[in-house]
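Input:
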Amino acid sequence: MNTAFQGNEFFLDPSRCIGCKACVQACAECGTHRGQSMIHLEYVHRATGVQTAPVVCMHCEDPTCARVCPADAIKQDDHGIVHSAAKPRCVACSNCVIACPFGVPKMKVELDLMMKCDMCYDRTSVGKKPMCATVCPSGALYYGPRETIGNLRRETPVNEFQFGRQTVRTKVNIMTAPDVKALPFEVLDFLPWEGKDFDPFELSRPGAPDAASAAVWDDAGLGPRCSGNCTCH
Amino acid sequence: MRLPNRSAAIAGMVLTLGSAAAIFLGSHGLRDFDPALTGYAIGALMAAFAVGYRFLIWAQRPPARMYFKRGLELVFRPAGAAALAEKAPRQSMPLPHGAGTLGYALARNFVAQEFIRRRGGLRWIMHLCLSGGCTLAFAITFPLVFGWIHFESFADNAEMYRVAAFGVNVDSFSVHSFKAFVMFNLLNISALLVLVGLVLAAFRRLTDPGERATQSFAEDIVPLLLILAVTATGLALTVSYKFLAGRDHAIWAIVHMVSVVSLLLYIPFGKLFHMFQRTCSLCVSRYKRVGATGLRAHCRRCGEDYTSAMHVADLKTVLDELGFDYRFSGPQGEVHYQDICPACRRGLLALNQGRTIGR
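Output:
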């Protein structure tokens, strides 16, 4: 355990992602992931562009997922790693899936279990790199000493996020402009249709998955578009 | 100094006094109570207090409290369920309510433990052996310790045994019968079941890379060692009286009692408490069934249906109670981050990062 991390940190730079999905494949090979890929490779706006972004668990200092868990199933260890739900305890309620500000936890419906990125704990705890950072060809996912990335990049790492009124500090860093101390998060600027004559549900893909009951990008988990018992019709 | 939680202390006291009353009444005013088992009875009463206390501490936390509250509302008040699901048409509520659904969930999740089978076949067999063996052993020993069931030989025939439950004779059998063999060896049978489970658990914990990386001694190994201690010392008692003419029986009896009481007292504080925490899963499965047919939540960014409106509303309440405030406000209006689906939150991370670095 004393070889853990060895001064290495995780640095995320979504803007460098080229969408190769090497991280998705590599992630499944991690011992603690049991053949399941835990990383998200998100199309930022599939309808209008090809921009992709990898999302790993940011390992919050005060993890919202763990705090909203009704069964005390999500534990943070002494290194600050927030682990997948403890198998005996997880009741598959999806509170963590819906509450995580980064949209990280995945509900594995077939296992009745929440699983998430644990920074490849079987590897990082013995001084190795996480699988995704090992294979990322473009440096969107980087794991190593802070000085090294400081010498390599124009951007600087921060580990603080401002979600409206909520400040979230994380173990994982994100690369931002040099003068930024906490990544400001804006949502209202990215709601293109609000206040305009535009039907948001035109964006809705038929058969889109329910985030609470399926891996979000996994087409195999597609369910009915909508129950019909809502105001959208 | 933190004061003890009052309602939790009351719950612990109620459970302890209830158990004590059940011992007193069930043993015919202690007439059928076996004094040799007093240590076990005291250990059980102490564990009852700890379990009651710990359960209430846990159930009072905002997320657990919300599920228990909703679970009870949805099971016992179908009409209230419709109100919770907000404007959901009454005819769309899933049937049957209450006992039918609860019975099904109990059989599927607690008896068959079907969800563990889906996580792994060997893991399922291991858990069935451990939980089945322990449940069988407790189902035999608790009634014996509490004096609810006791065996006595006939006054005129020492080879015939009578079984009395709550002071009423319910059965009699010859000590040479097959029934006697099974009855006298049920604890040994449960011990063998548990041993199989322990061997499988040890194999997993020694060979599975994922388990080896994440397991901790206090959380994962101590409960197995405690169960092993109870099983091994229990079998030692059988070996002592069957094969060694009772040699060291008195010592093994004390060691066994200490191991059982240690296990009982460990239950509320460690991994084994999940047997009580899983009651929450009954509320969750009901909550999800109602949520699936009730009003749905659509993401304010992409419009997709990502969970039930009830779930989003309840989580906002829970987050407020926990001291999190994910509300955004600006000239354009207000939005709570719970109204944005997880996929859009991931996209927004990239969009916001891109904006700060001008990409």
